[in-house]
TrEMBL record:
Keyword Ligase appears in the UniProt entry: yes
Identification of the protein by name: Tubulin polyglutamylase TTLL11
Source organism per UniProt: Megalops atlanticus (Tarpon)
GO terms assigned for molecular function: ATP binding; tubulin binding; tubulin-glutamic acid ligase activity
Top-level lineage group: Eukaryota
Amino acid sequence: MPFPLGRRVACDIYWHGVSFHDNENIVSGQVNKFPGMIEMLRKINLSRAVRTMQELFPDEYNFYPRSWILPEEFQLFSTQIRLAKDSDSSLKPTFIVKPDGGSQGDGIYLIRDPSDLRAMAGAHSKHAVVQEYIQKPLLIDKLKFDIRLYVLIRSLEPLEIYIAKEGLSRFCTEPYQEPSQKNLNQVFMHLTNYSLNVHSGNFVHSDSTNTGSKRTFSSILYRLASKGVDIKKVWSDIISLVIKTVIALVPELKVYYQADIPPGKPGPTCFQILGFDILLMKNLKPVLLEVNANPSMRIEHEQEVSPGVFEYVPSPVDEEVKVGVIRDTLRLVDPGQRKPSHPMSLPLGNSSELQEDILEAGSPDKAEPGDGVLVENSLPSLCLKQVFPKYTKQFNYLRTVERIAALFMRFLGVKGTMRMGPTGFRTFIRNCKLSGSSLSMASVDILYIDITRRWAGMVSDSREAGMGLQAFVEAFFYLAQRRFKGLPLREQVVSLLGVCEAQLEGVEEKRSLCAKTPAERRTAQGTAHPLALPTLPQLSSPATVRKPPNYRLHQTLRPTLKGNVEN
């Protein structure tokens, strides 16, 4: 260990193995983990984050399988499936159950009916997510496979996302058949996890990157291209999925970030490499399976070199993909290499540019002017491609929940907390002038108590009392629906955001005016313009309304049959 008694001089980069809190008391430099990332990427929290976005943008977030959260939605799951089967007797769905904190395929299993959960001792009462199983995946050599893509979140503010131009394709080791009662437990047929299939007798370690049970994603794309598939469209859809997923995660990540590194307090900046697991359906539509906060970056595998003797030997396909990801992440975060220009000054992309300027899979041979580094002659060109803010124009309208999170953090009150107390909620209502004849402060108190109490029962690992961000978002949706009846939910929420932001801007102007001298105040008043409401963003790609207009207090946000991934 190079510094057994600790290091007195601060590091430029801290590379943690698990979480932001691996080392405490870091006040400068950069850490390769964000606070709260592990928590946000647990199965339940990821599902909730995506579900919130599905409420606002159902058409844009239809890449995530229909999900139910256990144990709280077990009865809802049972009822919905029973009604669906009653209306269509030919319906024979399959579901996959994933433990909330599981990894490497541990504890995952398939069921055909909610009653199967009851048959397993206590299974329906354990924290997990149950999802519709995608029964028609794209097959290569008659085998099911998934894609592991590496994504770098360079910063949250401003949001900066990079995607590796190369990924891994991880194959099952038994020919695929649609689920039946006979093959339901054949994990080597249905589950693509490397950690499971590597123990199969059919697993093939290969020195080639386009054969074997683990291959480069580009080798799959070349194969699809040879059959006439538009691989630029495939990449475009995958990039959209990644950006939209990160946008869904950012609001709560910002809350975690301000809790650990409050504004004005010395602290490091953060970045993180994530592992996106994506399945291609038979129709080439990408489906998000999960996101890993700590993807394996090993470039070797265990191999039996003689009977009973195992050694770690290099894995060419892992080396091909992962070395470039680590190398280029360090180049991007190296303060000596980073360009001084602000990333938001990059040209904004649009939908056609996303297709034309798409990643050249398997050909990461061009350094891009917006990649944010000075390319050295001694190093290969970047394998990481910036996708945000490059495509801000196309995706920025989706960042509605971030604006709600900004309101939430403004009224938290105590630095370092992640829960809003009743006083903070009342202050939010008053400062935004949301109370009146139709909404008394007594009703506001009841709203706070009701939603906070219900969410406290759903989020059992919370260490703080009060209203968390997800509960605040639900309350905000409720207030928006009361105030702007008859509009789609998204327009209701954006309209209420406009009201709140305009009111708070007026409060800030008054405070600024009060701080001036009498002479400065007269000058400012003489030149002041009437306060104008901020221009609402254009609502492109209008989506259908999913939330019923009679949404009531005590009514939980629930999944519906709309916005579901096609099987």
